[in-house]
TrEMBL record:
<dbReference type="GO" id="GO:0000155">
    <property type="term" value="F:phosphorelay sensor kinase activity"/>
</dbReference>
<dbReference type="InterPro" id="IPR050482">
    <property type="entry name" value="Sensor_HK_TwoCompSys"/>
</dbReference>
<keyword id="KW-0808">Transferase</keyword>
<protein>
    <recommendedName>
        <fullName>histidine kinase</fullName>
        <ecNumber>2.7.13.3</ecNumber>
    </recommendedName>
</protein>
<dbReference type="GO" id="GO:0016020">
    <property type="term" value="C:membrane"/>
</dbReference>
<dbReference type="Pfam" id="PF07730">
    <property type="entry name" value="HisKA_3"/>
</dbReference>
<feature type="transmembrane region" description="Helical">
    <location>
        <begin position="144"/>
        <end position="162"/>
    </location>
</feature>
<dbReference type="InterPro" id="IPR036890">
    <property type="entry name" value="HATPase_C_sf"/>
</dbReference>
<keyword id="KW-0067">ATP-binding</keyword>
<feature type="domain" description="Signal transduction histidine kinase subgroup 3 dimerisation and phosphoacceptor">
    <location>
        <begin position="187"/>
        <end position="253"/>
    </location>
</feature>
<keyword id="KW-0547">Nucleotide-binding</keyword>
<keyword id="KW-0597">Phosphoprotein</keyword>
<keyword id="KW-0902">Two-component regulatory system</keyword>
<dbReference type="GO" id="GO:0046983">
    <property type="term" value="F:protein dimerization activity"/>
</dbReference>
<dbReference type="GO" id="GO:0005524">
    <property type="term" value="F:ATP binding"/>
</dbReference>
<keyword id="KW-0812">Transmembrane</keyword>
<dbReference type="InterPro" id="IPR011712">
    <property type="entry name" value="Sig_transdc_His_kin_sub3_dim/P"/>
</dbReference>
Length: 394
């Protein structure tokens, strides 16, 4: 979660606590007004006055948490109080409820119109109008009915306006996300075009040259033909992977149908193909490869592929040994190559070449909960030691 989101969340919680405290304070004030003045307007025994005043004022505390329940309590008490307690004749007060009670029921009705469902709003509006028509003196009931209806309509209009603004903000956010997604897709398409122009084109030329070498060049030995065939096969495999990558880049990530990724079932083929390129390679594979998950198998394959490529690039002519053990919980891979036997302008350590091969291997292993350790050997060789869990760690 970002800092802005934390600040926004904290601000929202503080605002909510502030509103709750304000509602509680107003409720206490209304109760403090209703209780001392109740004996002026209604003939209520002193022991019962706190209860009747509470029925008039305390429903207001639900105006934010549950206005429909607060309105129901206030309406029922407004129906019962005039029929149980008479007005004080000498007071000149003619309404059946205290002013506090009238204020509370009106505010709760407005809150219901702002927050409750349509059926609840209709029931609360009709019930309140009928209550005022039945109990208010003279012609006042009609005026109250019109006023209460106008208040409910006002609440519904405000509610519609707020909902419209929220919907508009949500649509604007959706449009912004869609624009960002479109920009990402356009950038991916541009990268795909560049990769196609720079890499796929040249790889295609390598395949064509390797396949046509025996027809263009005379007096090729069988070994040379086999070498060109190996070069063409390797280049075709690389070209197929590049085409798969370009397909992903050109497509929507949510809809693309990805081609099957290589895994442990292709490791023997990878080792055989590497040996056919002329690299001195020996390997020993133990354990059950089917125990590895698809993701762990892909990780082992990619680490082995990068290790063999590094050995060929940085230690040309060196013998390479591969030890692969599919354990019950962890698959271990060790790739060791000796010193270079062919003079080449290459850095003493693969990671000092400026590439990202070893870093990529470590990232792949870490993504599934594994590790990759590398070290230069005293004889000038290099060792890669990887440990990958059979099932990726969450």
């Amino acid at each position: 979660m970002s800092g802005k989101e934390l600040v926004r969340g904290a601000t929202g919680r503080l605002r909510g606590h502030g509103v709750t405290a304000l509602v509680g304070l107003v409720t206490v004030i209304l109760y403090a007004v209703a209780w001392p003045t109740l004996h002026i307007t209604h003939q209520v025994p002193s022991p019962v006055q706190p209860i009747v005043a509470a029925l008039a004022a305390w429903p207001f505390v639900l105006v934010r948490a549950n206005p429909a329940l607060g309105w129901a309590i206030s309406a029922v008490s407004a129906l019962v109080i005039p029929r149980v307690f008479d007005l004080v004749p000498a007071s000149g007060y003619t309404y059946p409820w205290q002013v506090v009670h009238i204020i509370v029921i009106m505010v709760l009705l407005l809150a219901v119109s702002l927050t409750a469902g349509p059926p609840t709003v209709v029931v609360a509006w009709i019930s309140t109008v009928l209550l005022f028509l039945a109990d208010t003196p003279g012609e006042d009931g009609r005026g109250w009915a019109v006023g209460l209806t106008a208040m409910v309509v006002f609440g519904l209009l405000v509610r519609w306006l707020v909902l419209s603004r929220r919907q508009l903000a949500a649509e604007e956010q959706t449009s912004e996300l869609e624009r960002a997604r479109r920009a990402i897709l356009e950038e991916k398409a541009r990268i795909a075009r560049d990769l196609h122009d720079v890499v796929a084109h040249h790889m295609s030329m390598v395949v064509v040259q390797a396949q046509s070498a025996e027809y263009r060049l005379t007096s090729l030995s069988d070994e040379a033909k086999a070498e060109f065939e190996s070069i063409g096969s390797t280049a075709r495999e690389a070209l197929n992977e590049i085409r798969g990558l370009l397909g992903v880049l050109r497509s929507d990530a949510e809809a693309v149908e990805r081609a099957p990724q290589p895994g442990v079932s292709q490791i023997e083929e990878l080792l055989d193909g590497t040996r056919r390129t002329g690299i001195s390679l020996s390997w020993n594979v133990a354990g059950d490869p089917t125990s590895l998950s698809e993701l762990s198998g892909l990780t082992v394959y990619r680490i082995l592929q990068e290790s063999l490529a590094n050995a060929a690039r940085h230690r040309p002519g060196a013998h390479v040994t591969v030890e692969l053990d599919y354990g019950t919980s962890v698959a271990s891979l060790v790739v060791v190559n000796g010193p270079a036997l062919i003079a080449v302008d290459a850095p003493s350590r693969p990671e000092s070449s400026g590439g990202s091969g070893i870093g990529g291997m470590r990232e792949r292993a870490a993504a599934v909960g594994g590790t990759v350790e590398t070290r230069a050997l005293d004889d000038g060789g290099f060792e890669v030691r990887a440990s990958v869990p059979v099932v990726p760690l969450a």
